[in-house]
């Protein structure tokens, strides 16, 4: 390259404007960096401010507001950080501990859902495995009933920013109790103060040892039972088994010990689970009525927001889950969420929820109605609520 003698002078002549330009560019760059920085900060605070304003409307003391504010902020952060979780479509396939012994005829129902086939893995069980906070033992548990609508209730509740729940069923108080409370705690998602940890295992309701064990963990535990007409519940239970084992005997033949005498086989778990009054009696030895909430499985379908309102009240939470969160999916034939937890897309429960039931001989259905009637009456009396099954 040739050096021209004019170059140094040229350089000298535009060196000061270049310097100025450089300084100007540096300043602009700095300003841009500052703007970007503050924008990120602003953006991260905007949603929580919105949440604060919304929640601030009728949350009580300032402390509660700030705790909720903190939890909603963490919620937003964890939602951003968390890997979206698949919509859980798991169901309970188990032999109920309390009906396992003796003349148990529930050997047909031996298969397990996907979650249950593998040992619970804390990393995959929690609704959010990342984020701050700490793992706590559940303060509220959905204890039953199998096929009552427990999955729908838990998935709907998970929409609430102050609820964190395990996706799979831990089966701690029936099958895994020997693993100890630390094992159980480790399955839980992290929560901040003010957030409620939850799990659902529908077999607890019929497990004789479960109330004593849950009470030993904490006497303050709130328990929720989703109940459904015991006759349709039994048919639903049978339908589930049938879907896995198409060769099982008919519902009609399993229902009776002796079809001619019409004696109902109460050792069949599909029948026994529906004797709600008997199972509730066991829970009342350890928990006062005001610590047990009964959710109607039927109303959970016809008016999900109404039932969710009751549950939120029971848990001492603001009614955040409302009508606006649901839509009725004509194809599914059930209410679905407009947006599931950690997702912006509408979500219905999967194909194992809301199966078509086989046609059952109406006479057998009537016989079962007659069988359950006195137990249902007792249950209405105990709960102070007529569920309208008769
Ligand atoms: N929104 C919505 N979508 C789909 N299904 C719904 C819903 N709400 C309640 N249900 C009823 O839930 C029944 C299954 O109950 P569980 O979730 O408790 O079953 S399980 O015990 O966990 O296997 C399931 O029973 P079946 O209809 O017999 O399949 C449903 O009737």
What are the SSEs and their pairings?
Elements: H1 6-56, H2 62-81, H3 97-100, H4 114-117, H5 122-125, E1 134-135, E2 140-144, H6 150-157, E3 163-165, H7 181-187, E4 190-191, E5 196-200, H8 210-217, E6 222-227, H9 230-244, H10 251-255, E7 256-258, E8 263-264, H11 269-272, H12 276-284, E9 292-296, H13 297-302, H14 304-314, E10 326-329, E11 334-337, H15 362-383
The chain binds 3'-phosphate-adenosine-5'-phosphate sulfate (PPS).
The site of 3'-phosphate-adenosine-5'-phosphate sulfate (PPS) has 20 residues, from helix 6, helix 9, helix 13 and strand 11.
Q: What is the N-to-C order of secondary-structure elements (H for helix, E for strand)?
A: HHHHHEEHEHEEHEHHEEHHEHHEEH
CATH architectural grouping of the domain at 134-250 and 269-358: 3-Layer(aba) Sandwich
What shape does the CA trace take?
elongated
Q: How confident is the prediction overall: mean pLDDT?
A: 78
Largest sheet: 5 strands, parallel
């Amino acid at each position: 390259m040739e050096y021209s003698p004019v170059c140094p002078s040229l350089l000298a002549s535009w060196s000061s404007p270049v310097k100025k330009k450089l300084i100007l560019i540096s300043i602009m760059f700095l300003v841009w960096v500052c703007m970007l920085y503050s924008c990120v900060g602003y953006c991260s605070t905007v949603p929580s401010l919105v949440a604060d304003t919304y929640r601030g409307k009728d949350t009580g003391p300032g402390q509660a507001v700030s705790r909720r504010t903190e939890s909603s902020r963490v919620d937003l952060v964890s939602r951003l950080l968390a890997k979206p979780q698949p919509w859980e479509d798991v169901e309970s396939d188990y032999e109920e501990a309390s009906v396992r012994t003796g003349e148990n005829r529930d050997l047909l129902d031996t298969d397990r859902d996907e979650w249950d086939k593998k040992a619970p893995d804390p990393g995959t069980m929690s609704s959010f495995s990342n984020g701050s906070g700490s793992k706590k033992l559940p303060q509220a548990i959905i204890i039953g009933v199998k096929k009552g609508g427990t999955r729908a209730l838990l998935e709907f509740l998970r929409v609430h920013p102050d609820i964190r729940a395990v996706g799979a069923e831990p089966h701690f108080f029936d099958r895994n109790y020997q693993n100890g409370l630390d094992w159980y705690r480790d399955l839980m998602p992290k929560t901040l103060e003010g957030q409620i940890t939850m799990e659902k295992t529908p077999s607890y309701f019929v497990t004789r040892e479960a109330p004593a064990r849950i009470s030993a963990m904490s006497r303050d535990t709130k328990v929720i039972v989703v109940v459904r007409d015991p006759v349709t519940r039994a048919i639903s239970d049978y339908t589930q088994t049938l879907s896995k084992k198409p060769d099982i005997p008919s519902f009609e033949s399993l229902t009776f010990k002796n079809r001619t005498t019409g004696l109902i086989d109460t050792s069949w778990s599909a029948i026994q689970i529906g004797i709600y009054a008997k199972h509730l009696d066991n829970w009342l030895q350890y928990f006062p009525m005001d610590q047990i909430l009964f959710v109607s499985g039927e109303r959970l379908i016809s008016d999900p927001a109404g039932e969710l309102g009751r549950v939120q009240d029971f848990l001492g939470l603001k009614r955040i889950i409302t009508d606006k969160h649901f839509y009725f999916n004509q194809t599914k034939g059930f209410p679905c969420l407009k947006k599931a937890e950690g997702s912006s897309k509408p979500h219905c429960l999967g194909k194992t929820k809301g199966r078509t039931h086989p046609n059952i001989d109406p006479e057998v259905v009537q016989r079962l109605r007659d069988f359950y009637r006195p137990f249902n009456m007792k249950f209405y009396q105990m709960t102070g609520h007529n569920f309208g099954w008769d």
